[in-house]
Amino acid sequence: MATGRRGIGKFSENAVPAQLVWAVLILAFAGCFAAKVPPGRGRAFPLASGQNGIEGIALDATSVYWTAGGKVMKAPLGGGPLVTLVSHQDTPRAIAVDAGSVYWTTQSYADGTVMKMPIGGGTPITLAKGRHCDVGCEIAVNATGVYWTETRDVNIPDSGAVMMVPLAGGSVTTLAAKQEYPRGIAVDATNVYWTSGMYVSGAVMKMPIAGGPLVTLASGQHVPRRIAVDATSVYWTSEGISWTEEAIEHGGKVMKVEHDGKVMKVPIGGGTPVTLATGQDSPESIAVDDTGVYWTNSDRDGKVLTVPLNGGSVSTLVAKQEWPDSIAVDATGVYWRNRGATDTVMKFTDAKQAGPQAARAELAKAEADAKQREVDFQQEIAAWARGCEAEPKLCGFAPEAPPGIGEQVAKDFSARAVALYTKGCDAGDVDSCSILGQMYEKGDGVAKDLPRALALFEKCCDKGDPGFCEELARKYLRGDGVAKDSSRAAALYKKACDRGKSGRCIDLGFMYENGGSAARISGSSTCGAKA
After folding, report:
1. CA-based diameter of the chain, in Å?
2. Residues whose CB falls within 8 Å of the CB of residue 462, separated by 6 or more in sequence, listed in order
């Protein structure tokens, strides 16, 4: 199926330039910070950007620490100069801090390390090496030791472990072996807590820090992730992935993935788990203070959320974050990292005064850069429109929208794009029809209109694109946005088959063989000249 060549998808995610947002927020909120405020009354701003692959975040009384790009970094809690504590680390991941030292893990299948160095800088010390840190290796620290999880091989059941080494170094102890995919870890003065298991086999575990019996605090968890602990309870996120049998495909079962992310808690001493939040989209990192639980929904349009310790209304602190994760909280705010184009250490807090002159200069530069990008983009739109007017086959070649174009420019581009794609489609350009159909199907830049989208896909099919014939056949076969109609699906598979989709010829044959009751939904075949 043709996907078209359009560049209008990004503007709806960033209505204003990203650099301008950071600069405005730095200007507005750098300086003195009040105590953490109720949801909706604070603002988010960056403490560091361009960090090249941020992983863990940790806090002490004065600084925020993080791992990124082979380095361990820190910055003042309220913003200020960035300090590189150490560089040339082999993929540093999780991080923890105490009153005198910072600790981190490095990622490797069979040669990972657990590291330590003074918070003021100095020589790194290797506490443990030869660690299997291909996926896990989350880390926690208390007054006696450093604790971490290891996942040796996700394809081998019960191959993970929970490990410990004294703060000053020494013998590495395996506290718990044969843990299935251990992930998050937390520790207090008496016990170590962790999550393990996949899909419906997940569990929340604890055991004494000196070793002893394993206790299951919660079982039957659907992909438990990170974990936090306070004086009374253990808290964790659960991705909520499960698999159910959905349909028959040539005698086999089709598995359907279900997502229902949760934020959970259970008493430290054991008891009935309590659901604090449900229906979450990829909940990942979690933190807790004396009033609430905080977590990130770590997808491209992610959120930072909170709920009271004893449950209640879930509040969104910040939305439209890019892959947020690695959350931490203190008396002045909530911290997390955004991965992706920004790679930024973020903070949510209240603030009282404007920032320094440097922030004003950054604001002016960001404004100028944003205006120039918009001017350049509008010139590209004008050139595209002229080409489309002269030759409809060029209507499918939209310019790529720059990140963070202004809201009005985005709206103008959307309206112009619909008009030009319509012109190209009316003139018989299949690419223009396909792009326009996808816009109507998703409500991307236009009001969502599934009948209009299906009509455009039909037109693409009729114009000779067998991929759209195949896609429409699947929709009619499954009842995806349309009434189920196996006869219509068979007719569309026949069109795809006639136009060279040999795999669809096989699907059509199976439909005939089964009286139109089943068809292969996916897959390919080597028979036929063209697949």
Report:
1. 78
2. none
